[in-house]
Amino acid sequence: MPNGYMGKILRVDLTSETITVEEPSPEFYRRHMGGSALNLYYLLQEMPADVDALAPDNILALSVGVSTGVAISGQSRMTATAKSPLSGAIGDSQCGGFWPAKLKFAGFDAVIIKGRAAKPVYLWIDEGQAELRDASHLWGKITGEAEAAIRDELGDAKIEVLQIGPGGEKMVRFAGLINMCNRANGRTGMGAVMGSKKLKAVAVRGSNKPQVADKEALQELTKWGAKTFPKADVAGLGKFGTAGVISVQQALGGLPTYNFNSGVFDGWEAIDGETLYNTLLAGSQEGQQDRKGRDTCYGCIVRCKRVVDFSQDSYSADPLYGGPEYESIAGLGSYCGIDDLAAICHANELCNKYGIDTISGGATIAWAMEAFEAGVLTTADTGGLEIKFGDAKTMVKLVEMIAAREGFGDILAEGSARAAAKLGKGAEFLITAKGQEAPAHMPQVKRSLALMYAVNPFGSDHESSDHDLTYEEDSYKAFEDRYASLGLNDPLPAQSLDPAKVEFARITQQFFGMLDSVNLCHFVWGTSWPLYGPEQAAAMVKAVTGWDVTLQELLEVGERRVNMMRAFNAREGIARDQDKLSVKFFERPLKGGPSDGVKVDKAQFEAALQEYYRRCGWDESSGIPKRETLQRLGLDWVADQLES
């Protein structure tokens, strides 16, 4: 057997109801490592250009990485890739939990799904075997109900279930995939793709753990992590979760408020991670100060996942559905001017029940709020609803309406950019790139993100490169060795977008692309505050697989992944003209706090864009990878596609 990976990929054709197994070569696995890069290979090789994202010919690829399931933190990740129904560009999204490791234990590194079933089905993968089963009785059920029904039907409460909720069934364009009822492949609409295929769920059971080439070397890395964790920066993430970032962003003037009109929110303390920890987390009343309200992914020491449990007059939360991350609190909270933490947690639960992305969901509602308050949208557009900033009840109601595609929710279910186009108004209030709503890190404040949101192949995303603040001179010193290992030795202020900052964005984009191919958690393996650093990532992959890999080889995997994404988009007619931000980021200065008056400088942005293309080896007029760049990465066949 190979080391780390299982050497088998499951192929599922829902139209013909056939299931086959493919066994790629070791060279294939080393070239792609799994995850995003592996998925893109299948999409580019087997999917025609110009396929509608919700048509049977769209391929949905689900894959883990070569180190998924081994005994170290931050490895239980899965990447879902398909053409995005939200943007029409490539769609890519990651999740954690136990499902990724269990897919590996069940004997497979990936599931490649084609076609459309004649009726709702679910895929059952059990210890190396797979079959399609009827899911008609599950269609329409929320995630908790469907998961319980599948486990009951298969007679095992430990089966892991990746599924869509009613939002995916109704093809909400930002619907996600949900496992454990609270872990999400949230971005780019992968749930809508799965819903279009009438595939309700993929249930897995497995006990065959992967072999490791050098157990002693892996154990040393694991022991180092356990010893280092209590004093590491990431330990704070374990206590307060990503919600702890609220106070940091507020202090920087980078907490998106009132649909990105401000970087500060007067009600921030009411929704901060410490407030969440002390009030609504499961166990907050029992004084379990070490692990209260904390869940984890398979084999991870950090335990960063929030779990809320409460019942109040208007809102409640079931711990089955976890709790909100920073992005969810901002999207459903400060974006909308809402400081009611219980309402935010309840809305987050609804998103997990119905299977919709909290970022695009909250941002689309915030867009509607601003457009309504500006008088651009009226009750004639909204079906009589008054949609105003700060109205928690209306926000919660709109989440439900979006998931059900009911009334005005049917328009919002298209995402804000498509909604504005459909209504013929409100585009001036958008905060999108390639049709995808911006996450809760402001490009006005973190300037490299202005570039990265624009050039990222699947639209604005906060996990596609590192953020400027750790590369400023004072903070950089704490991570100097890690950045130096990537050849980054020229720290700059967050507001800079000079060539050295462009290089920072480009190299860390490659690094994060590698993480999403090996499928490693950004909170555990990273460039700055995470537990392990870049060189340790290379050492871990070497220990697991036995391959004599270097960090440079891994960076090339990330570079290959980015170039394959750009090539996919080029086939779809998406090139330089789509590498842009909404006009709001350039024309509307922020109001209040440390970022008062700040906006993205258009000339600075355009110069950075040209510099980025040049450094990537892409045509500067089109933004499409040059043949020599693709050949250097072993992608001659992709270059042939682009020229045909």
Any low-confidence stretches, pLDDT <50, length ≥5?
none
User: What's the main sheet like?
Assistant: 6 strands, mixed
CATH superfamily of the largest domain: Aldehyde Ferredoxin Oxidoreductase Protein, subunit A, domain 2
Q: Assign the CATH class of the largest domain.
A: Mainly Alpha
Proportion in helices? 40-55%
Major sheet: arrangement of strands: 2-1-6-3-4-5
Radius of gyration: 23 Å
Q: What amount of the residues lies in strands?
A: 5-15%
Instruction: From the 3D structure, determine the CATH topology of the largest domain.
Output: Aldehyde Ferredoxin Oxidoreductase Protein, subunit A, domain 2
Termini gap:
39 Å
The total of beta strands comes to: 18
User: What CATH architecture of the largest domain would you give?
Assistant: Orthogonal Bundle
The protein's oligomeric status is single chain
Shape, principal axes of CA atoms: globular
Number of helices: 28
Q: Please state the average pLDDT score.
A: 96
Structural class: alpha+beta
- Number of structurally distinct domains: 3
Can you walk me through this structure?
The structure is a single chain. The chain is built from 28 helices and 18 strands. It has 644 residues and is α+β, with helices and mostly antiparallel strands. It folds into 3 domains: 9-205, Aldehyde Ferredoxin Oxidoreductase,  A, domain 1, CATH 3.60.9; 233-437, Aldehyde Ferredoxin Oxidoreductase Protein, subunit A, domain 2 (Orthogonal Bundle), CATH 1.10.569.10; 447-643, Aldehyde Ferredoxin Oxidoreductase Protein, subunit A, domain 3 (Orthogonal Bundle), CATH 1.10.599. The strands form 5 sheets. Strands 2-1-6-3-4-5 form a 6-stranded mixed sheet, sandwiched between helices. A 6-stranded mixed sheet has the order 8-7-12-9-10-11. A hairpin with a 6-residue loop joins β4 (78-83) and β5. The mean pLDDT is 96.
